[in-house]
């Protein structure tokens, strides 16, 4: 009879150990699956984030550049070789600089120069590939930017330069 009890206890402890091992394997497998799904989601998020440097990001960048250079007469839209150019003038350590942001050959470009003369449109550093980029000054100090990026996403924004005199009508056409 003792043998029978010992055999039952031995079988019970063997079944308990087997169940514990199965449970541990189940949890380990579940943890690995959760990690794999998490890694896949993280990779997709990083890929989308790197691809999402889009027209909205560009317009936010331009807005910040305008606000940084917001002083009387330092922000303007000019036409260079038939291309509309956002011109931002600044002074650093007594040297005057101009930064130009414009579209050329399918990309928005940025170029900073110390002398307005002698630069060419192809000299700018590409920021974003686009299908279209339009900077306009609707009225003194009120700028409009329209951008169609290479993926076909359109974004537009209005930026008001605060340095314009207080008597200027701020209505948008």
Describe the structure.
With 173 residues, the protein is of the alpha+beta class. The protein contains two helices and seven strands.
Helix and strand composition category: alpha+beta
Describe the largest sheet.
Answer: 7 strands, antiparallel
User: If strands are numbered along the chain, what order do they take across the biggest sheet?
Assistant: 1-2-3-4-5-6-7
Helix fraction bin? 25-40%
Order of helices and strands: HHEEEEEEE
Q: Detail the poorly predicted runs.
A: 166-173
General shape: rod-shaped
End-to-end distance:
101 Å
> Quick check: average pLDDT?
83
Number of strands: 7
- Fraction of residues in β-strands: 35-45%
Number of H- or I-type helical stretches: 2
Explain briefly what this protein structure is.
The chain contains 2 helices and 7 strands. It has 173 residues and is α+β, with helices and mostly antiparallel strands. Residues 166-173 have low confidence and may be disordered.
Summarize the helices and strands and which ones pair or pack.
Elements: H1 2-51, H2 55-68, E1 75-80, E2 83-92, E3 95-104, E4 107-113, E5 125-139, E6 142-149, E7 154-160
Antiparallel strand pairs: 1-2, 2-3, 3-4, 4-5, 5-6, 6-7
């Amino acid at each position: 009879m003792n043998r029978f009890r010992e055999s039952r206890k031995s079988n019970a402890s063997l079944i308990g150990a087997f169940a514990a091992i199965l449970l541990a394997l189940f949890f380990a497998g579940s943890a690995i699956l959760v990690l794999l799904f998490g890694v896949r989601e993280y990779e997709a998020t990083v890929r989308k984030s790197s691809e999402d440097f889009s027209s909205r990001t560009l317009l936010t960048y331009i807005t910040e550049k305008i606000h940084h250079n917001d002083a009387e007469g330092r922000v303007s839209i000019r036409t260079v070789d038939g291309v509309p150019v956002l011109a931002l003038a600044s002074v650093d350590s007594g040297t005057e600089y101009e930064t130009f942001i414009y579209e050329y050959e399918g990309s928005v470009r940025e170029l900073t120069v110390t002398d307005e003369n002698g630069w060419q449109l192809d000299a700018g550093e590409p920021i974003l590939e686009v299908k279209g980029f339009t900077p306009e000054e609707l009225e003194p100090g009120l700028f409009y930017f329209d951008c169609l990026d290479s993926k076909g996403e359109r974004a537009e924004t209005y930026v008001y330069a605060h340095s314009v005199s207080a008597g200027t009508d701020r209505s948008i056409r």
